[in-house]
Amino acid sequence: MPTRKYAIWAKGSDDGPGHLIDEYDDLFDKYGFSGNGYSLAEHIESIIQEKDAGLLTHLDFDPNGNEFLVWADSEDAVQRFMDDVLPVFGNASTMEAYLKQANPDNFSE
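RESULT FIELD:
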């Protein structure tokens, strides 16, 4: 397990909208995914596996139902994570393009 030095986090909120998980909940649901923290972790891990599989040895995924959390062991790992994930999950249109082509049968959430 990599050293937990840097946290990359997104949280949903029962108190109101404005967090990543809440903001895109309908979009995930539209394509058959839950969009919760576990779901985000599955999709993000899949994206990283495809783009930069070696990065996974520097990350420790620790989501729950209301939060996405991954720990990185270095600033380089954080930057690589952002370089891989932001082009896909950086805005609603790129996220929808990704979710549209993702097969729900390949994910448990």
